[in-house]
Amino acid sequence: MDQASIIGIDLAKNSFQLHGARTDGSVAFRKKLSRGKVLEFLDSQPHCAVAMEACAGAHYWGREIGDLGHTVGLIPPQYVKPYVKRQKNDAADAEAICEAALRPTMSFVAVKTAEQQGRAMLFRTRDLLVRQRTQTINALRGHLAEFGVVAAQGRVHVNRLAPALEDPDSDLPDAVRELGTLLLEQIAGFNAKIECLEKEIHASARHDAEARRLMSVPGIGPITAMAIQAFAPPMETFRRGRDFAAWLGLVPRQHSTGGKPRLGKISKMGQRDLRRLLITGAMAVVRWAVRRGRTSDPWLARMLMRKPRMLVAVALANRMARIVWALMTKKESYRAPAAA
Question: Out of 67, 120, 237, 301, which residue is the most buried by the measure of CB atoms under 10 Å away?
Answer without folding.
Answer: 120
